[in-house]
Amino acid sequence: MRTPDYPSRDSDDWAKVDSYFTDLLAPADSALEASLEANANGGLPAYDVSPMQGKMLALFVTMTGAKRVLEIGTLGGYSTIWMARALPEGGSITTIESVAHHAEVARKNIANAGVTERVDLRVGAALDVLPELTGPFDLVFIDADKPNNPSYLEWSMKLARPGTVIIGDNVVRGGAVTDSDSRDPNVRGVRTFLEMISEDPRLEATAIQTVGEKGWDGFVMAVVKAR
Ligand code: DHB
Ligand code: MG
């Protein structure tokens, strides 16, 4: 069982339910399991989405009919593989990773999952890579260094179109998000990000708290409104 990022008294129960759901709805998958193992062996932080969250991202790709996906923060490519698999024929996911070693592990995981052809993995700081990209993207998943979330939102908007879905991971952080005095740069980044979303008349959004094998966290989801 993984160590939750934000544990609580009930962490074991949440993880047990996650495991029950995963066995039912996304059973053993050798490429995905191998990627988590490679990430652990490579010393990558265990910040991957959970299997049920990966499946949720895949379903979002399917439900939106997204053909072009942008992921900010590849890590070892676990969520990348989930979303890449859900793409239609001719679809692609551009994913950005700033740590060369993480990108190297991700490249192998992506190849092992047989989705290399659909994945455009860019190595570099997202704020350097984003200006090189051409939109529009249909779906954006922001899951990198949280202090830069406000800038990632600005770039996502530049690379979006009306109807683009923007998802941001880790906006609850064990409840720390409500602490307006927090000195934690991750919390501050997430709070500014959420405030920007709330104040942007072009966006309609919700935020959902989650419990499971990662503990207590959640994601924000926004859609760019039609003009
Ligand atoms: C952290 C980052 C993540 O993307 C995640 O899913 C969990 C935790 C972190 O930086 O603490
Ligand atoms: Mg995350």
Proportion of strand residues = 15-25%
Order of helices and strands: HHHEHEHEHEHEHEE
CATH superfamily: Vaccinia Virus protein VP39
Heterogens:
3,4-dihydroxybenzoic acid, magnesium ion
Radius of gyration: 17 Å
Structural class by SSE content: alpha/beta
Can you count the helices? 8
CATH architecture: 3-Layer(aba) Sandwich
Helix content percent band = 40-55%
Distance between the termini: 46 Å
In this structure, how is the largest beta sheet organized? 7 strands, mixed
In the sheet with the most strands, the strands line up as 3-2-1-4-5-7-6
- 3D shape: globular
**Mean pLDDT over the residues:** 96
Number of strands: 7
Provide the number of structural domains.
Answer: 1
Pfam families: Methyltransf_3 (PF01596)
Keywords: Methyltransferase, S-adenosyl-L-methionine, Transferase
GO molecular function: O-methyltransferase activity; S-adenosylmethionine-dependent methyltransferase activity
Family: Belongs to the class I-like SAM-binding methyltransferase superfamily. Cation-dependent O-methyltransferase family.
